[in-house]
Amino acid sequence: MGLTNVIKVLLIEDNLAEARLLQEVLKGATRQEFQLVHEKRLKDALKQLETHTFDIILLDLTLPDSQGLDSLSPIINHNSHIPIVVLTNMNDEELALEAVRKGAQDYLVKRHITLDILVRSICYAIERKQMEKQLKKS
Fold this sequence. Notes:
Elements: E1 6-12, H1 16-27, E2 33-39, H2 42-51, E3 56-60, E4 62-63, E5 66-67, H3 72-78, E6 84-88, H4 93-101, E7 106-109, H5 115-137
């Protein structure tokens, strides 16, 4: 992954304030450029995934049209090659761990997100996913 590459991020988050915050956070990244596409509903996000390519998905677990881990399966079923970082609230740590067991690469507690944490998580998730792919090949 060259540093000149723009990382394409699909953010699935129904809370506009939180989506804006994440967008602002990513704008502050200096070593890496991010291009963010934001969808508020799972069904719209799945449509995006049919027509566009993304490097990573940031997934909020509480969506208007899907709750908790139900959001993961439809994404993973069709886009198992794309790493997913789950976004969670303070009290949902159990759920987030379960999401990782079910195939997400990582999770972030929204209130603790900083630029460093977010960028590191995104880059790690992408690298882990690539390593997973190579392991499956061999």
